[in-house]
């Protein structure tokens, strides 16, 4: 919600899609937006340290 009290839809995420990938590289503990599910949902949170530990040795795969 903005300081004026307004809400804004930034994006609609559909089943099987991801969001906020770039935010994990910002080094912040909180996501600057929030999300609301309109139905049953499962959310997977990926720890940045685990992500980098896996992908750093495999840069050719990460870019595909």
Integer count of domains: 1
Q: What's the rounded overall pLDDT mean?
A: 82
How far apart are the first and last residues' alpha carbons, in Å?
36 Å
Q: How much beta, percentage-wise?
A: under 5%
The DSSP helix count reads: 2
How many DSSP-defined strands?
Answer: 0
The helix-and-strand class reads mainly alpha
Name the overall outline. Answer: extended
Radius of gyration: 15 Å
Can you write the helix and strand succession as a string? HH
State the share of residues found in helices, binned by percent: 10-25%
* Major sheet size, sense and barrel closure: none
Low-confidence stretches: none
List keywords for this structure.
2 helices, extended, mainly alpha, 64 residues, 19% helix
Descriptive notes:
The protein contains two helices and no strands. It is mainly α and 64 residues long. The chain has one domain. The model has no long low-confidence stretch (mean pLDDT 82). The radius of gyration is 15 Å and the shape is extended.
Write the layout of secondary structure elements.
Layout: H1 48-55, H2 59-62
